[in-house]
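Progress report, Aim 2. The chain analyzed during this reporting quarter is listed below.
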Amino acid sequence: MKTKFSILVTVLTASYLFLACEAFVETKVPESQLTGNQVFQNTATAEAALSDIYARMREAGFASGNQNSATLLIGAYADDLTFYGTNTNIQQFSNHTLLPSNTLLAGLWNNAYAQVYAANAILEGVTASESIPAADKERLTGEALFIRAYLHFYLVSLFGDVPYVTVTDYNQNSTITKMASLQVWSAIINDLLQAEALLSDDYPTGERIRASKPVVQALLARVYLFNSNWTEAEAYSNAVINNTAFTLETDLNLLFLKNSSSTIWALHPGVSGANTNDAKTFYFTSGPPPKSSLSAGLYDAFEIGDLRKELWVKTVSNANGTWYMSYKYRQQAATASSMEYTIIFRLEEQYLIRSEARAHLGNLQGSQQDLDNIRVRAGLLPTTASDQNTLLEAILKERRFEFFTEQGLRWLDLKRTGTATSVLAPIKPNWQAYQILLPLPEKELLLNPYLLPQNAGY
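Predicted structure tokens for the chain:
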């Protein structure tokens, strides 16, 4: 039977590894399709299917840390990075000449919806299963809901109005339309609240590499912050901060190691001895860099005495110039056992979320205290900001120094605070205000007219 649908079909092989077909193409539904009942006859096979989604998130997409990740592409889109390589698709992100035909743009979209499809298949299969124990059903469902919400968080943040896909039915997905951004945000929150109710504080494994209740709460804090719901942003960040499982890592040399006390959620590198894609993407020993370096603007903006500049940035120089390497992740080769995992959520973000929420709510002293927890640990003096406006400016700056080269957070901050034009126009000659949203991939629009219109300006 031939079918056409707009979201990637993901299937499960005998070893429970997913294979994704290209979006918007005619494809035969394979007998081993993920939604097959045999996958959900017991917890072990369902666990294998869910674990593979995490693996795909590690290898491709927003959080992967490689060249098709938000870390590189959206970091270059903002002011974190300067791109020196020859890849024209990355150059378009860096130079703000992004075309809807860009293949890496399409990759961001397609990888996300492939993973959404796989999460939906988990949700449908687990719900229908009569043999998986109830407690396991709740945990698997909670994790899949979290993954679906996390992926849509990036889709709506980057593209604006997008489909919120909740089923695997190809007939529905073939005619799916965009949902208004406000509705997407509402759907994200709904999924996360359900996940929070289903998951416990305990991680499914001994490591913090899968979703648990604190992971869901960390994303809820971010989502509420991005939607200016200061009360809920404070409440959820407070819940994570008060969880004794997490403490601020005082030694910045240890923060990006796999056992860091501030890690809330990280992606396992896949096999013992492997490390992160991030280190491979950003490491270089001679200039000009083969891919990218931290921008001179970021390097020069650090305060004197900031330990993050000293410990998380390496300078590479020769007769032709000086470049700045992100040195958060340091193990670009395999080690005897894995030393670094790609960290997605960490406690420092929760302190800065709560600081920002408190500033908006008028709790200026509380806001200062949270901000200073991050500053003092970085070797800096307490903030001199004392009113709401100066505090909010100081928090935005602190977030830049804390989260550079971490899943495009700098761009998301510029976008949500309305400061993208004032920051980027002076340093990006091709910047235009409509670029606050990325274009929808051209191929998707050609093959699915229900996604029209294209974002304005493209």
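Strands lie at 2-4, 10-12, 18-20, 26-28, 81-83, 263-267, 292-294, 313-318, 321-326, 342-346. The CA atoms of residues 151 and 263 lie 20 Å apart. These observations will guide the mutagenesis work planned for the next reporting period.
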